[in-house]
Amino acid sequence: MEKSQKTFARLWALIGIAALITIYAAPLFLGVYSASLFRDAMLFGLMALGLDFLWGKTGVLSFGHATFFGAGAYGMAIVSTEMGLGPVAGAWLGLLGGIALAAALALIIGYFLIYGGVRGSYFTIVTLALGVIAKLVVLGASDLTGGDAGLLGIPSLQFPTRSGPQPLPEIGQYWFVISVVCLMTLAVWWACSGRYGTLLKSIEDNERRAQALGYNTSAHLLAVFVGSAAIAALGGALYATTVGVVATDSIDLALSTQAIIFVAIGGRGTLFGPVLAAVAVIWLEQKISSFDAQLWPLFMGGLFILAVFALPNGALKGVERLAAKLKGAAK
Amino acid sequence: MTAAIPALLNAMTLISILMLVGLGLAIIYGLMGIINMSHGDFITVGAFSLALVQGLGGSFWMALIVAPFIGAVLGFCIEKTIIQFLYKRPLGAIMATWGLSLILQQGLQLIFGASPQRVISPIDATVEIFGASYPAYRLLLIAMAVAIMIAVHLFIRKTRFGLDLRTVLQNPEMADALGIDTRRVFTAAFALGAGLACIAGVLLAPLTAVIAQMGTNYLARSFFVVIVGGAGSVPGVVAGASFVGGAETMFNYMIPAAMSQALVLVLAVILVRFRPNGLVAR
After folding, report:
1. Average pLDDT score over chain B
2. pTM, entire model
3. B13-61 pLDDT per residue, tens
4. Dist. CA B233–CA B156, nearest whole Å
């Protein structure tokens, strides 16, 4: 048993390394356009990672995670374009500002809801409302946010070189984004791999019992909520700075539900799964939309229903189950 | 004084719309506990059935009779194919009904096109009330909303089916043991909720642009109508709709529409936090 587990772990590590090499080398054989799509998809994957940290590890489903992605993106845009900072300082401070805005929002909202005992489906509906509120506020405060038109001209992140600060070339930007996403995924995975993950799991299974064992469950849930919002905001802020524009589609309810489908398809709680699922689903969206843009929402709807009935634990677990069945049949 | 009357009537119109929209959800969410993300699209289906009936030469009143049947059949099919497997999986129900919502919206748009559907209001006249003129259709809407609320309240309180429904929702195992076919009651309740949403859609259609996405506007608000009022009772829906509709109309006179909707939702969230059982607790 132990030996087979060890070989299994080795196999996974090998697959992981091979996947990493492929991802890093991708722009060389995909071309610049596909690579930039892939890069943007990875940033949406970061939002999925944030949601999975919350939903996968504590069982609390947020139906408004685009609020935090959007807070990151709009925070980035407002700080870098409307505060009169230069493009160098503006972009970096914008990154921090976007994340800080989302974290502060999550802290206030989370404190108010989680300490008030709002859990389960109530939490989901309230976060659904948050997403709607956030979009209405963005539309209403058009002086600051540009309303329907959004904000343009967000500067790129610049890095010090011998000839002064320079933005990264296309491929460097790709590698930078991939590295950030991989590091964040590893960080969350590492944080949840030990005792802390077990604690979060125990809160999901039975919060009362975890409380009785002396854990301040509300504080832990709040910490995870803020962390998950900050990760989503990092994705949003990086998205805004790489694409250069931000509009209401990055705070829309539709985006919140996309995050849910990424996590559901990728496998709730697997952390790596949702990131990969984000890339896979966005790739599929591109393919189907290039065929006929009107078909995609139908597919998306079908994916939701499929995720609920056919893949209750995500595609990875589904494949694993299938593999186990085949192995059983082979014996 | 004459300025206050249209404001009051506007508030009552919005409250009536929200009551109608929330009523179906009060049964599906408030009583059955299913978070039905496609509720808004049932409303859209109702509005489209009006366009369809009128397009085929029928009248508004005919649509008002046909639409709930379309809704009930739709609700029946959805309950049988999707919802009935998800009573023990609330999050699964949220996701599946959201998927359904996407399919319904896009399906309607593919069939009927993206431009607004043509619907004809049954009455165009305006009425003088205390010196202020007001569209007669809105008064009709208010009257219809009140009548429907009373009818549903009596239906749930006084009929055999209403009794079965309340029994099943209070304690499904016990109801089962008493010989009530709980699965049938759940199916019927879901179909009833969908049918009511379609009636709301018909009544609402002459006041808005009838497009495939129209239901989305009402989704978050209808949930809060039900939660703020107190899950699953007709008086609760009245209280919730009055709170949301009244507050929104009031803010509309002070701040831009988007902000007033946002502010009402914020207030509703705060209210839910402090009174999780709603204004009219059971």
Report:
1. 87
2. 0.87
3. 999 999 998 998 888 887 788 888 999 999 999 999 999 999 898 888 9
4. 9
**In chain B, which residues have their Cβ closer than 8 Å to the Cβ of A253?**
216
Asked if residue B94 lies in contact with residue B82, where contact means CB atoms within 8 angstroms, the answer is no
- Report the chain A residue with the minimal C-alpha distance to residue B109: A294
What is the pairing mode between strands B132-135 and B126-129?
antiparallel
CB atoms closer than 10 angstroms to residue B112: 17
B contact test, residue of A55, A105, A126 with most B CBs within 10 A: A126
Whether residue A137 and residue B220 make contact (CB cut-off 8 A), yes or no, is no
A10 phi, psi to nearest 5 deg: -60, -40
CB pairs under 8 A between A and B: 111
Nearest CA of chain A to the CA of B28: how many Å?
14
- Residue A244: name the closest of A169, A154, A176, A168 by CA: A154
CB contact under 8 Å between A304 and B96, yes or no, is: yes
ipTM of the complex: 0.84
pLDDT in tens, A125-134: 889 888 889 9
Side chain identity, residue B281: A
pLDDT tens digits along B201-256: 999 999 888 898 888 888 888 888 888 887 667 888 898 899 989 998 888 888 88
